[in-house]
Amino acid sequence: MLAAQENSSEERVIQLTKELKQAKQHTLVEEATASSNMYINSSIELSIPLGGFNLNTVKRLQIIFGREKNIRTIPMAMLVRH
Q1: What is the average pLDDT value for the chain, to the nearest integer?
Q2: Range of the domain at 27
């Protein structure tokens, strides 16, 4: 069971990595065509634990924001600063 969870977590990390690379490429294309007044100085900090976030605080946030029945672990968190 533990090996299956680790494999599933690794697959999610691989999928998220692919999606982030695609988003980066898309952003680079948009950046190349954007005018200079469209930029915002910001940074993104990612946290992607192998098992996901399974804290009570995270579960409370899921319930508050509409996940009453299907509460799962959260695979990653993003902190955007500007």
Answers
A1: 78
A2: 2-81
Residue 72, both tokens = 């799962």
The three-state secondary structure class of 79 is strand
Q: Are 54 and 73 in contact (CB under 8 A)?
A: yes
Residues of the chain by 3-state class (helix, strand, coil), percent to 5: 55, 15, 30
Q: Which residue has the tokens 């954007």?
A: 34
Owner of token pair 């065509």: 33
The count of structural domains within the chain is 1
Query: Which has more pLDDT, 4 or 17?
Result: 17
Nearest Cα residue to 12 out of 49, 40, 38, 64: 49
